[in-house]
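Incident review: delayed structure delivery

Summary: a single-chain prediction request sat in the queue longer than the usual turnaround. Root cause was a stuck worker, restarted by the on-call engineer. No data loss occurred. The affected request and its eventual output are reproduced below so the record is complete for anyone auditing the incident later.

Affected input:
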Amino acid sequence: MPAPQRTEANYRRFPLDAVDRLQFIVHAKQWGFTLDEIRELLILQDANGDRAQAKRIAKEKLHRVREQIKHLSRIEALLSRTLAECTGEGPMREGCPIVEAIAEKSE
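Output delivered after worker restart:
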């Protein structure tokens, strides 16, 4: 993006298309797209590229999101189980189901 013009008070003045582009970038980041993926989408848009390429990028992102959800679901189940097993009382030297479960998973 070109550098924006400045007012006499030295405020940056962005044209509307630049604001739209920045909002697109913010929204895409909220959806979990990387800057490289966003750049690729913007290049496709600027060049009137093929929708199939945009769809490929989105399908790859969806696959990664679904994998993250599976991973987080496993973590949730483990945390839920270990929290239920832990009384929350007594010294750690007697063992802690939470710490032990994390140690088992990391091995």
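Verification: The CA atoms of residues 35 and 79 lie 32 Å apart.
Action items: add queue-age alerting; document worker restart procedure.
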